[in-house]
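User: Fold this one for me? It's UBC core domain-containing protein.
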Amino acid sequence: MDYGRELLRRQLTELSRNPPEGVSVGLGDDENIFHWEIMLVGPPDTLYEGRFTFPRAP
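Assistant: Here's what I get for UBC core domain-containing protein.
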C-alpha cells in the first residue's frame, strides 16, 4: 500500500472515531479510499442552521 492511501485510511479512521461537531465522514465506495462522502450540518445561530450540506469536489 502506498503512503497516500495509508495516510487517507488513517485520517478517515480518526475522523470516524472523533468527528468534529456537525461533520459526518465515510467512504462513498468501500473499494476506493479516494471517494469520500462528507455531510456538514449547519451550526445553530448561523445562516446554515438546520441545513445539510454535501460538499462536492472534482
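One thing worth pointing out: Helices lie at 3-17.
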